[in-house]
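Late entry, evening session. Most of the bench is empty. Finally got around to the prediction I had been postponing all week. Sequence below, unchanged from the version circulated by S.P.
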Amino acid sequence: MNLAFKRLIALILVTFTATAFAAKDPADLEETEEHPEIARFPGFYIDNSKRNDFNEFQFASKANPDDGETKEGKYWFVDYILKEGVRQPSTVELIRNYENAFRKAGGSLVRRHGEVAVFRVPRADGERWVQISVDNGGYRYQLHIVDVAAMAQKVEFSAGEMAAAIKATGFVALNGIVFDTGKATIKPESEALLAEVVSLLKNDRQLKLSVEGHTDNVGDKKSNAELSLKRAESVVKYLEGKGIDAKRLKSAGKGDAAPVADNRTDAGRARNRRVELVKF
């Protein structure tokens, strides 16, 4: 049995054990949760927690905290407090228990300084970084966990969803096609959504679309109308560059004349800055 396989088996065993004990405790505050594969130390309840599908955290992996390594991926934060009347463990006991569990899974201690320790643990598809920070000699401790991974690109609408919207209403409004401020230059983060628009048009060879630009009400109406038209033209040019026949496309600039949300708020203005695909 090779070392890699042994580590995988150990990781599975530790994961299974942790999952078995990572049940919700009645003392946990409402709407809190812990990591499904990392069990708490006995006698603690969750005071606060957070989970993000994608975030970043700077681990205290260097002597100077400002030089610590920043990792990105699925993120958890869990804040544990000792229950009343329960024996308080020492800082060393808390950290050593986690260290032993992670070492069984093939992990290693990256750095420990006082009440803070950072660990790196292998996973089947990458690695997991964990930081434990102990307060008040073991009365409270916090875990920061990142399952390292690149961000999965999410699109506002798939080609199929756009097709369904156009069939039902004759148009679809897209906020995910974004431009440089005050310009008609399409930002790179728009690529995934634009690829779906290309698929939409290639899937339905009879579909013709008017690409209509809309802005918020910041600036004067004339400038907004001109900017919205230029942005629509940029989208049309992009689609033509991907092989879409120019006869199936046209562009229009609506400026700030047709808001769909309150221009007095940031969220409203963001919704009003959009590109609509209208069937003609």
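Two things to note before I forget:
The helical segments are 3-21, 91-104, 159-169, 191-203, 221-241, 266-272.
Confidence is low (pLDDT under 50) at residues 3-21.
Will write this up properly tomorrow.
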